[in-house]
From TrEMBL:
Keyword set includes Repeat: no
Class in the EC hierarchy, top level: transferase
EC number: 2.4.1.-
Protein name: Glycosyltransferase
PANTHER family reported in the protein's UniProt record: GLYCOSYLTRANSFERASE (PTHR48046:SF6), UDP-GLYCOSYLTRANSFERASE 72E1 (PTHR48046)
InterPro entries, per the entry: UDP_glucos_trans, UDP_glycos_trans_CS
GO molecular function terms listed in the Swiss-Prot or TrEMBL record: glycosyltransferase activity
The entry's keywords: Glycosyltransferase, Transferase
PROSITE patterns in the cross-refs: UDPGT
Superkingdom: Eukaryota
Keyword Transferase set for record: yes
Family to which the UniProt record says this protein belongs: Belongs to the UDP-glycosyltransferase family.
Source organism: Urochloa decumbens
Length: 492
């Protein structure tokens, strides 16, 4: 038979492309450590959303990564306007019995004398809800944070804020000052935390508490991006306040594997554009603009005269993450038809609007791309960094406002439209001014310089002896130790 690997780890990706993609990348890197095998667990819920993911993606995983899908759980009792966080955490919660069964069967099949048990259970930020199940089975848990460390510190602070204040966070009189972080307005905390009476609020506070069941956090960030925060976190975990954090990033895809067509037409269009001349506009897998905002963005892009490549989604006046659950819901037409009258014709040659989806990694690393209007999803941010492209930070939901503050005020990688504060509309004038500044202005040039520095630093972080590589080896080393201990207990 096959020689069992030293350590088997179970990775749990919560629903959504932005969660499955980085977890798949983690799986790849985990097994590349040698002597480690992995099972990547996903949810059937929402898996048909997201443009062919994750089944196409799953097919590209290395053979030492097994996969398992937790069966679909019903959600029809949730109100139609339930928040994205409520939906995801409800799926995770309702599938806990299935997850427990799966873990039990994996434990049985990898138990000594041949195997080393399950050395670690590694959920992502929403999957942290399930840490209890692993703890009950004696499996160590490590949360893979697909966001940055500042967002993690902020989340971990939320239960205390919840306990010690009574107003809505957006009304907090003082900014939130956390060790090693730039200060944050209460209003910059994620949306579900802005309404204490909502189910999503309770879910997030409880999820933050459950994070403390972890034996460690694997964080998709790196020293040059968050040096002060990493140092501050180390001090806190040294005092036993929090489990240790391993800064192992950036984990971003080097190419858009998966459902996309290998050669998207927009890449051929980019081939014809001058170096660094094109602004790429994309709001992640879920980002959605209102009708009014879509019109203002269009007019601003047009007025700027800058070249652009815009991934256009169906607008929604209700939900800034509407695309997350699969685009085209209830639409039989084309998202481009929601653009202002004549926009496509007037900008022909200058701009290209593509419907729904672009192969983002290839786009960002194309020599013609010189700027990125982004919702500041962390994967998108890291992909921009890996390509050395500066950003215009346009957060829409989740922890994106935290990211935007950090990128603009700490890192110096992004300009921020003020109109976006407090969920306002960014006017065409502001769009035009900022786009011009980013592409050809002085501030844009400074940010481009910073982006290039970070690109170098990101590469160094994963070079031999790089900080992130070492942190990753340290956490994998913990898993191998656990597996060895289980095996020697089984042998005696
Ligand atoms: N993505 C893409 N093409 C698109 C939109 C998104 O390839 O048109 C990919 C993008 O490269 C990133 C992921 O989808 O890897 C989105 O993750 P992110 O964390 O940026 O945002 P989320 O969608 O989770 O809000």
């Amino acid at each position: 038979g096959k020689q069992p690997a030293a350590a088997h780890v179970v990775l749990l990706a919560s629903p959504g492309v932005g969660h499955v993609l980085p977890m798949a990348e983690l799986a790849r890197r985990v097994v590349a450590q040698g002597e480690v095998t992995a099972t990547l667990v996903t949810y059937a819920n929402f898996s048909s959303a997201g443009h062919g993911f994750p089944s196409a993606l799953m097919a590209t995983l290395p053979p030492s990564v097994s996969t398992a899908v937790l069966p679909e759980v019903p959600l029809d009792d949730l109100p139609a306007n339930a928040r994205i966080e409520t939906r995801i955490l409800t799926v995770v919660d309702r599938a806990l019995p299935n997850l427990r069964d799966l873990l039990i069967s994996l434990l049985a099949s990898s138990s000594p004398p041949g195997g080393g048990g399950v050395a670690a259970f590694v959920p992502d930020l929403f999957g942290a809800w399930a840490l209890q199940v692993a703890a009950e089975l004696g499996v160590p848990g490590y949360v893979f944070r697909t966001t940055n460390l500042m967002a993690l510190l902020t989340l971990l602070h939320v239960p205390e804020l919840d306990r010690t204040t009574t107003c809505e966070f957006r009304d907090l009189p003082e900014p939130i000052r956390l060790p090693g972080c730039v200060s944050l307005r209460g209003a910059d905390l994620p949306d579900p935390l802005q309404d204490r009476t909502s189910p999503a609020y309770r879910f997030v506070v409880e999820s933050a508490k459950r994070h403390l069941l972890a034996d460690g956090f694997i964080v998709n960030t790196f020293d040059a991006m968050e040096h002060e925060t990493i140092a501050a976190f180390e001090t806190l975990s040294g005092k036993g306040v929090y489990p240790p954090a391993y800064a192992v990033g950036p984990f971003s895809r080097t190419c858009s594997s998966g459902g996309e067509k290998a050669e998207h037409g927009c890449l051929r269009w980019l081939d014809e554009q001058p170096d660094g001349s094109v602004l790429y506009v994309c709001f992640g897998s879920g980002g959605t603009l209102s009708m009014e905002q879509m019109a203002e963005l269009a007019a601003g892009l047009e007025a700027s005269g800058q070249k652009f490549l815009w991934v256009v989604r169906f607008p929604s006046d209700k939900d800034r993450s509407a695309s997350f659950f699969g685009s085209g819901h209830g639409h039989i037409d084309d998202p481009l038809s929601y653009l202002p009258e004549g926009f496509v014709e007037r900008t022909r040659g200058v701009g290209l609007a593509v419907a729904e989806w672009a192969p983002q990694v290839e786009v960002l690393s194309h020599r013609a791309v010189g700027g990125f209007v982004s919702h500041c999803g962390w994967n998108s941010t890291l992909e921009g960094v890996a390509a050395g492209v500066p950003m215009l930070a346009w957060p829409l939901y989740a922890e994106q406002r935290v990211n935007a503050v950090m990128l603009a005020e700490r890192v110096g990688l992004a300009l921020r439209p003020r109109g976006n504060d407090d969920d306002g509309v960014v006017t065409r004038e502001e769009v035009a001014a900022l786009v011009t500044e980013l592409m050809v202005g002085e501030k844009g040039a400074a940010e481009r310089e910073k982006a290039r520095e970070l690109r170098e630093a990101a590469a160094e972080a994963w070079a031999l002896d790089g900080t992130s590589r070492k942190a990753f080896e340290a956490v994998a080393g913990e898993w191998k130790k656990t597996a060895a201990a289980v095996r020697s207990r089984g042998a005696s």
